[in-house]
Every structure is written in C-alpha cells, then in structure tokens.
Amino acid sequence: MPNTSKGPQAIRYQITGMDCSSCAEKIQSAVAKLPGVEEARVSIASSRMSLKVDDEVRRTAEVEATVKRLGYQLDRDQSLSPADDPERPRDISHVTPAYRRALWIVVLINVGYGVVEMVAGFFARSQALKADSLDFLGDGLISFLGLLAIGWSLAWRARSALIQGLFLATLGFGVLLNTAYRVLVLNQPEAGLMGGFGLVALIANVAAALVLIPHRAGDANMRAVWLFSRNDALGNLAVVIAAGLVFWTKTAWPDLVVAVIIAGLFLGSAWSIIRDARADLREVRGLRTS
C-alpha cells in the first residue's frame, strides 16, 4: 500500500538505561539502519531519541523492539510538539523508586571511587590512575544528571548536560597536559599503588554493574550491562598491566601511554555530551520560534 503522508514524520522517545555516550551511539546506529527510518539522533545529554520515518504507524513497533533488544527501555515522548513549551517538565510516573535508589548507588560508587582514584594517582605519581578516575567521574556524573533531571524539561536537561560536558572536557585536558609535563620530567610512578588501585577500580565497576542488572529486563538487557561494564573493566585492566610494565621496565612510559589512551577516549565521550547538548538547545530554540 503506498505511503500517502506528506514527507517524513517525527517520533520522539525517552530512553532509560543509557550509561555512556557509546550506548547512545549504539542505539542510533541500530535504529538508523531500519527500513523507513530517514533520520535518527540519540542524545546522551537528554536521554532522548528523535526520529524521522516515512510512516509512523508502520515503523513504531520495529523501532521500539530494536531498542529493547539492545537492552534499554523507552517511552514515547509527546511533550515537544511545536505548540508545547520546551521548558515544561515531563511525566515521570513510569520511574520506580527502586530504579532511583539503584541510580543513587551507582552515582556514589562511581563518583566516590573516582575521587579516591584521582587522589591515589597523585600519591602514586600515576597518570594512568588519574585518567582512569575520569572514567569513574564521567559515568557517575552522567548517572547523577540522569537522576536529577528525570522530570526536567528538555531545555534544562540540555543546559545541565552542556555544563557537565565542558567540566568533564576540562578534566580530560588537564590530565593530558599533566601527562605532557610528565613526559618531560619522567617521574617513575609507584607500581604497587598503581596496580592495587587499578584492581580496586575493577571491583567497583563490577559492583556498579550488579546494582544495575535487576533494573534491566531480559537477557539482552543484561548483556547491555555486561558490555558497558566490560568496556570500563578494560580500562582498569590496562592500568594494572601498565603498573606491571612500570615495575618491569623501571620507566614511566607504560603509565604515560595508558594515560593518553584513556584520557583521549574520555575526551571523546565529553565531546559527545557537548555535541548532543548543543543540538538539544538548537531544537529548543527552534520550537520557541516556530
């Protein structure tokens, strides 16, 4: 049956369970490949997915099934038609107290250990520990923003995410600059402290994953938590390996190389938050002038 609609139709969703920018990219890539999807954008800044499809009635079920198979929950967002106020808070009746508690626990684990690992990095003179702490701080702040902004309007979520992204980018550049300084000074880090805190970081990531798993329904959702935790664990493992190489080679170079790699990946995530927040703010301005 031919499509009689006048051009692409817009659909918006709120997505629950995204923990990092790679989650948003994974969802966006999968949905963009579906037939009939002409444009897809997933924002880690506001936890929103905006689509343009050729036929809303025909494509909705497949889009929703695809996102759920990846391990995320989603709800239709009807709050942003051109006639609506982008400053208006959204409905949060579907968010359970148990999920809020789980998010608080994840925030405390990530931000708490991120601060501990940053301090440990200074004591151990390890740039890799400092860079790895950014990953904890970044994940914790994303969860914290998600927790605070559950009922916020699109405009306020975007503004908050932009501030967060700029803050995280500043931390990332600070570690890179400090690493460049260490390349010139080459103070050898304390391999024992470095490896010990790297192992504790691995345990902290596993603990955060165990807290989230009960709030992800089905095997696909558990796999999403596993993949998220695995990516973080690889960074922790890299710190431990670098500590062993520092001890073996008696040089700081393994620590510095790992620090640059982790900080570079972190800056990529920070840029994703900034990019999405700016796009959301452009959408808000467009709604106000329409």
Reading the helices and strands in chain order gives: EHEEHEHHHHHH
Low-confidence stretches: 80-87, 218-226
The total of beta strands comes to 4
What is the level 1 CATH name of the largest domain?
Mainly Alpha
| Overall pLDDT metric | 76
Gyration radius, rounded: 21 Å
What can be said about the biggest beta sheet?
A: 4 strands, antiparallel
Mass-distribution shape: elongated
In CATH terms, what is the fold-level topology of the largest domain?
Alpha-lytic protease prodomain-like
Spatial strand order of the main sheet: 2-3-1-4
Please tell me the total number of domains: 2
Helix content: 55-70%
Look at the helices and sheets and give the structural class.
alpha+beta
For the record, the CATH architecture of the largest domain stands as: Up-down Bundle
Number of helical regions? 8
N- to C-terminal distance: 33 Å
Provide the β-strand percentage band.
5-15%
